[in-house]
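Quick one: co-fold with pyridoxal-5'-phosphate.
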Amino acid sequence: MSAFTIKPSEKANRTVNPIRAIVDQVLAGPPSTCPLERIPLSLGDPTHFGNLLPPDILTTALKESAESHKYDGYVPAFGCPNLRSSVANSFSSSNVTYTPDDIVVASGCSGALELLLTGLLNEGDNILVPKPGFPLYEVIANSHGASVKYYNLNPEDNWQVDLKSLEDAVDSRTVGVVINNPSNPCGSVFGKEHLKDILSVCEKKGVLPMGDEVYGNMVFEGSEFFSLAEVSAEMGGKIPVVSCSGMAKQYLVPGMRVGWLMFYGEGLDALKGGVKNLSQVVLGACHLAQQASSVALDDGCVEFKKELNLKLQTQANAMASSLQGCHGLTIIQPQGAMYTMVKLDPKKFKDIKDDIDFTKMLLDEKNVFALPGTCFGIENFFRAVYCAPKEMLEEAGQRIREFCEDHKA
Ligand SMILES: *Cc1c(COP(=O)(O)O)cnc(C)c1O
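Sure, here it is.
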């Protein structure tokens, strides 16, 4: 027996990602007896299969930056001047002007969200988050002794926000609303008018709109991405917006850990100052990675992004059409990002009671791994990531089809 019993802090104890416990339920039990090779449709890491590579200019810039030894040192904790000015330039438009002072760089978009929410939340406060939605917002809020309340996305309406549920969820301790567009896990993209309606609710209720736009511009034919700041500007620019984005998804380098916050509009100076103070704790993101990101943003990588969207669209279509007409499933055509949420009707199956059951049995019998909707706060859906090569997605679709037939009620 050791003489020491070192206890973690209360904060550490309440910092728990709910996905883990749910995934453990799916993975519980004996290992799959299926002889087929595992197809993971569960991973939100686009680099996993090796079919999606970052633009050459980014890789070259990283190598040259390292060799130059000009970027080995510390930079301002809230971001190196080059990158802040590249972000400001590439996200400004005819309506929205960012200066480098409006940008705070962090270790990934997750780090940016953490900075923002730490800067905003006191114990007992809450933020509104989408349901279904990305679990990280809740993890961060809970870690601060704050909480989340949910507003609904409606699957019957292309996952648009149920505006009434949004308005009704605001209470006296609500400080902000997270709007994730394009959406993880839904793969949906909001139109401009819908974003105006969402901002109007935020304005009416006096809560800060916070955009998680890490998938900005990753949209397919027929959809267009509008940033919250752009939409606020079009409404007269009276509604302040803080948005986060980063290199992880749009440039296919989640491992680089570069993300940022962008402050748009009036009334945000104190919050921005607070967030910059907070950035002093970890002294910012990797300098080399910031420099390389700056080079890629300055270039714009227009062709690369066009090709990436086309590839993702092809993969999304392959996934959707291979599941189309599957017994007991309803497909909602994805419009962007890397995900789709597939609805399942337990009544159509003889021995599957919910999404946890479905994903667990699918893994066991067909070695296809998809995350249950419960991970994202909604039952009887599963999330499929379409980052895998087209042929692999078609193979997964075929196995899911057989699985659904095998369990038909
Ligand atoms: C991947 C993801 C992030 C985090 O991105 P990092 O830059 O890797 O931290 C944030 N929000 C959503 C919705 C994501 O899917």
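If it helps, The mean pLDDT is 96.
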